[in-house]
Amino acid sequence: MRRKLVVGNWKMNGSRTSNAVLLSEIVAGLSGHGAASAVCVPAPYLAQCQAQLAGSSLAWGAQDVSAHAGGAYTGEISAAMLQDFGCSYVVVGHSERRAYHGEACAQVAAKTVAALAAGITPIVCVGETLEQREAGQTDTVVSQQLNTVLAAVTGDDVAKLVVAYEPVWAIGTGKTATPQMAQDVHQLLRAQLAVKNAVAAAGVQILYGGSMKPENAKELMAMPDIDGGLIGGAALKAADFLAIIHAAD
């Protein structure tokens, strides 16, 4: 049985004061839950997470990482720096990075390799736009995105990945793929992973990242290949985030 995983992506939100309250409320409400949980926060708040969450069951991570180990890359953050702050996870290839920063699949693959080399679990995001879905290109798009990453890693590395399916058309729009629509893509992604390493693929957590909320979390995570969620807006409210973690139980 794969353990469920619920990861909050705070995006560009937070302050030292509000973070302290949110983190303390989440940690206080985690007792007794069987799902794994984490928050991926803006880089300036990694030190705060490290100080406040050390020893708790709530892991923390970053929202991006450089493909480079170091050097003249102004504004970039290396995997070694994330290591310094105790990060367990890093989001790579989020649809907002692809859309707003022009990140191509090859760059996402390079970032995945950098994270793995530092012992940090990459949460590899894949997903299609509304136009691509309506054109019947969903399978082609997500397959290409994941296959570029798989071509850059070893078969043994498959077990160290987390994959997140985020239908771009369902992020922040209030729209959500039906559980069966999401399951179909998750099943496709697991089949792709299995081509690289069949044994490892059975254990990889594949998260749904398209507007998972307390109202739909249980139904989505009841699907056989949906192993948790990459949560946006609902992760900024302790009660909602905890409700999703509870639904994962």
Characteristics:
single chain; alpha/beta; eight-stranded parallel β-sheet; 11 helices; 43% helix; globular
Can you walk me through this structure?
The chain has 249 residues and is of the alpha/beta class. Helix content is 43%, strand content 15%. It contains eleven helices and eight strands. It has helices spanning 16-29, 46-53, 79-84, 95-101, 105-117, 130-134, 138-152, 179-196, 198-201, 217-221, 238-248; strands at 5-9, 36-40, 58-62, 89-92, 121-126, 162-165, 205-208, 228-231. An eight-stranded parallel beta sheet has the order 7-6-5-4-3-2-1-8. Strand 3, helix 3 (79-84) and strand 4 (89-92) form a beta-alpha-beta unit. Helix 1 (16-29) runs parallel beside helix 2, helix 5 packs across helix 7 and helix 7 runs parallel beside helix 8. The longest helix is centred in the last third of the chain and has 18 residues, at 179-196. The two termini are 13 Å apart. 44% of the residues are buried. The mean pLDDT is 96.
